[in-house]
Amino acid sequence: MNQRRSFVVLLAVAFLFGVVVFSASASADVAAPVFQSPVREAAVALTAIQPSPVNIGQELVFEMQLAVANINPGVGAAEVYLGYNPLLVSPTASPGQPIAEVLPDFFGVASVSVNEILLTCPVGSGPCLHLVVAGPPQVTKTGAIARFHFTALAEGQGCFTVFGAQLADADGFPVTPVTLPTGSTCVQINSRSTITGTILRQGTPGNPNPGGGSLMCSEARVVNTALAAVTGANGNFSIADVPPGTYTVEASYSGYLRAAATGVVVQSGVLTVPVGTVRLLGGDANGDGVINILDVGSVISEFGRTGVPVRSDAPDCLDSDDPNDINDDGIVNIGDLAIVAGNWGKVGPTAWVP
Ligand SMILES: [Ca+2]
Ligand SMILES: [Ca+2]
Ligand SMILES: [Ca+2]
Questions:
Q1: Fold (CATH) for 193-351
Q2: Could you tell me where in the chain the CATH 2.60.40.680 domains are found?
Q3: Which of 23, 68, 143, 285 is the most buried (most CB within 10 A)?
Q4: What 3-state DSSP class applies to 14?
């Protein structure tokens, strides 16, 4: 009897022990990752440059980011050197800061100790921006510490290189290693100029022009390109985004001979290229580039007609135009015929002269 009771007790103890062991091993499985050592990481990165490509004279912007993971007792300071090519880009003042715009994304505060240009960088080569920022310790965090503003100076690949970066933890010890960006971050810098000038039209607005007839809506076009513009109320135009090259600029308006400015040189880095003033000669009513008997016939065919469409009386320059109403006063009459007769035999394109 005692033997049997002892056996039952032993069985119960063994069962309980097994349950405990099983439970222990199960909970050990769940808790196991706690005992793996966390990966310590620290890296510096540059964001893509905006805009891309960028034109000479424009500002370009990008940010420097810190990414740290499991750095105990937290990263409390960072010192970075950002190299650049002074022939292609120039650092410009940032909002609230003389050089780099310090951002609070990483440390939670916009704290800066050093923010300067070094003409001879202690690491790398050439000039660099030297930046030291510090703040509350960050164990695991990714965020921007600075936004850089530069002005594009010349055509080429504008490149930026993190020459060096040091991080310190909250106990003052250096954080190693710090992964830097591979190679440089670059942007294509283009030269784009604006061609400016003025287009006047014979008989406009010198004649009385009731109901229409202004210097608006003449077209200036860079030949063999899609670049063009129309004139404003004073006859001025500006054609933007012209790459370096040698061009012919043509001026035109319905009922007038075209005029051409040849050999217009647009040099890299020259932002504005004025071509001066041209005065278009009227009378080419049929638009064939010569003023002759056919234009007289065209004007005569509508002689006396009033209320004809006038493009230059509408700011959007989208209205149609009657080329027989050469001076855009809304009526085809002796005034238009006189302009034709006065330019008899002239051939376009005429020279670009006032
Ligand atoms: Ca003609
Ligand atoms: Ca007229
Ligand atoms: Ca007209």
A1: Immunoglobulin-like (2.60.40)
A2: 41-190
A3: 285
A4: helix
CB 92 within 8 A of CB 63: no
127-163 b/e (C-beta count within 10 Å ≥ 16 → b): bbbbbebbbebbbebebbbbbbbbebbebbebbbbbb
What is the whole-number distance in angstroms between the Cα of residue 287 and the centre of ligand 1? 5
Q: What is the CATH number of domain 41-190?
A: 2.60.40.680
Nearby residues for ligand 1 (ion, Cβ within 5 Å): 284, 286, 288, 295
End-to-end Cα separation, the chain, in angstroms: 132
Q: How far does residue 236's CA lie from ligand 1's centre (Å)?
A: 26
Burial class of residue 64, CB neighbours in 10 A (0-12, 13-18, 19+):
buried
Confidence of residue 173 (pLDDT cuts 50, 70, 90): very high
Q: Which of the ligands is closest to the CA of residue 343? A: 1
Tell me how far CA of residue 235 lies from CA of 68, 217, 220, 223, 229, in angstroms: 60, 8, 10, 20, 11
Distance CA 247, CA 303 (A): 39
- Minimum-distance ligand to the CA of 303? 2
212-216, long-range: CB < 8 A, 24+ apart: 212/310, 212/312, 212/313, 212/328, 212/329, 212/330, 213/310, 213/312, 213/313, 213/327, 213/328, 213/329, 213/330, 214/312, 214/313, 214/328, 215/312, 216/312, 216/315, 216/317
CATH 2.60.40.4130 boundaries in the chain: 193-351
Strand partners of residue 203? none
Ion ligand 2 nearby residues (CB, 5 A) = 325, 327, 329, 336
Q: Which ligand is the nearest neighbour of the Cα of 338?
A: 2
- pLDDT for 271: 92
CA of 218 to the centre of ligand 2 (A): 17
Residue entry with tokens 């010569």: 290
Give just the sign of the alpha carbon dihedral 18, 24, 30, 35.
Answer: negative
User: Cα–Cα distance between 174 and 76 in angstroms, integer?
Assistant: 10
As a whole number of angstroms, the distance between CA 110 and CA 101 comes to 9
Model confidence over 227-244: pLDDT tens digits? 999 999 899 999 999 999
Mean pLDDT of the chain: 89
